[in-house]
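Lab notebook, bench 4. Continuing the backlog of folding jobs that were queued last week. Each job is logged with the same field layout so the records can be merged later without manual cleanup. Today's entry covers Late embryogenesis abundant protein LEA-2 subgroup domain-containing protein, a 249-residue chain. Filled in by technician R.K.

JOB TYPE: sequence-to-structure
TARGET: Late embryogenesis abundant protein LEA-2 subgroup domain-containing protein
LENGTH: 249
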Amino acid sequence: MDHGSKKKKQSCHGLCSPPHSATCLCLYLLLSVTLLFASTAVLLVVFVTRLKKPAFYLQTIQMDRSFSLSTSGTSNRSGGANNGTTCSVASLVFAAQNLNGIGIRYGAAALDVSYANESVGAMDVPAFYQPPRSGNVTVIMHAVLAQRNVTRLLIRELSAQRTYMEIRIVGSIDARTHIMNFPLPKVQFSLDCRIGTNYTDMVLREGIKSMTTRKALVLSTLPHLSQKCSIKIDMRSRRKRSRLDDLVC
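JOB STATUS: finished
OUTPUT FIELD FOLLOWS
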């Protein structure tokens, strides 16, 4: 009698009897994995909502030697090719800032460039990395511009004697955040940047000088310069066809 009660007492104090130990272990592991995934999902949601938006500032613009404001030269060159469009390349230097405590690695992308609500080309964005809490990262991007459209719009704007010019850069860039070299799920940054300035004698003189001498135009020297970038963060990646494919140069 005492032996039976002692054996029953031992089985009650144990978590599982020997025949059911494997089942209890599986349930314990399943519960642990479920809690781990739930905690990770909550942390990712909190992380995305608290992610600070990176900042980009255009510093200099430099046109290549093929750019010309001559409409006759543009029409002659474009007329020589069937359905061809003469294009020029502008080199743009951006300063990138990352206020987050994590690194951000951007993938290559193409952004649309428009002027006076008309598309004039596309910007080729290379893949680059922003270290945590960095403010001195410079990124060189190249804008492929349809020279005929740029010349036509500039002549139209100058003849209309408008006092304000604005360049708009729109598109999406896929990125991946990193914590201690550990990659996190991808995010997408949707950009809508507007760079504008007033037409003044200085702006017109410096712009023409930069185009004719092929020297870089430093935007900080221009008066009344404004740079506004709207950035939206999305966990879903929506791939779009590159605008560079639409330009036949």
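OBSERVATION: The two ends are 98 Å apart (CA to CA).
SIGNED: R.K.
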